[in-house]
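Backbone geometry tokens:
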Amino acid sequence: MKHVFEDILIATFLVCLWEGMYPGKAGWVGFVDVGCGNGVLVDILLREGWAGRGFDARGRKSWAGFCADTQEALEEKVLVPFLLDGEGGEGVHDGRFVSGTFVVSNHADELTPWTPILAAASGCPFLAIPCCSHDLSGAKKRFPPPKELEDSEAAGDLRLNMNLSKSTYASLCAYVERIARECGWVVEREVLRIPSTRNVGIIGRRRTGEVDVAEVVRREGGGVGWRERVEALRKKEAVGH
């Protein structure tokens, strides 16, 4: 029940955001929900008339309960960024998206810090809702506490809580925001009204210029060990609802 209400509220935020960005759906390319989990968010957005798709390392039993259109929009794939080795193959997504596709990363764990990087590489706006703390290799990591933002960084935020704590979650959000800024994004932040303590939405819809995202990945450790970790995710037993 919690997850259903949570996804309804995230969908509500996205629809409101998109209606402002794409009046009358002008310029709408579609969305992709990376690490879509139970698929409920994808289903709601499709029912609301916003075309898109989702994929996850493991299929969910809940997918079989959706209508045919939603089932067709959900895929079982792991994401191995083309910036690492360029290898694709069956059941692998290389992290390239059609330019303009809106990338949704909702509690996507290992994919969270990759979201602003891959979005920048393909010219796609994004929403990331961080949850668990991982670096670009997919390993769990505790990041340094966030520093107070400069006025120029905070000016474009939708609603910024300037009293950031030194918690693991606040540190993760600060890390993802820093990665996004290094990729050229003008970062906006919203505290989402969802039944979760992991409720910060990090939004990128404008960029200050082109950036070599491969260099950003290199500075952050190069993502060494990513493929092995995501392959291990695929081998885990599929979960239920």
